[in-house]
From TrEMBL:
Membrane topology type: Multi-pass membrane protein
Primary site of residence: membrane
UniProt similarity note: Belongs to the MIP/aquaporin (TC 1.A.8) family.
Pfam families attached to this UniProt entry: MIP (PF00230)
Subcellular location: Membrane
Matches recorded under PROSITE patterns: MIP (PS00221)
Name recorded for this polypeptide: Uncharacterized protein
Keyword Membrane: yes
Amino acid sequence: MAEESLQLPPEHNLDYHIVSLFERLENLRKEQNQGAVVVVGGRVSRPSMQAEIRTLEFWRSIISECIASFFYVFIVCGAAAGAGVGASVSSVLLATALASGFAVATLTQCFSHISGAHINPAVTLALSVVRMISPLRAAMYITAQCGGGIAGAALLYG
């Protein structure tokens, strides 16, 4: 048999195929995220609560808020408890403040693309009041954040 080589037209080079692959993947991702918020003419259109609760993205964001709150409470309370042994008040405050700041920065980098990294129920409540998240999502976030915080404290002190 003769060797046959596949000849692509010049406009169909490797770059073209990579770009078209990414476009197709992006379209698939958009189709799967039917629960996304859509703004049309300044009016926000959200999916129903029944549709929102069935999405994998919803449950991933709930779990990520729980994990973020767990780590935040564990790190900050651990820094305060560890620095309190034979240390001055100012060193305990400094250690706790640094731990809090670095923990929030790190957790925000890790979880912001999944759930927004609210970490604090007050932030979640504020975003719910200004209608940036749905009431269902806010209630679930607050429940997950409180549960994560309790679990972090229980692991540290329990």
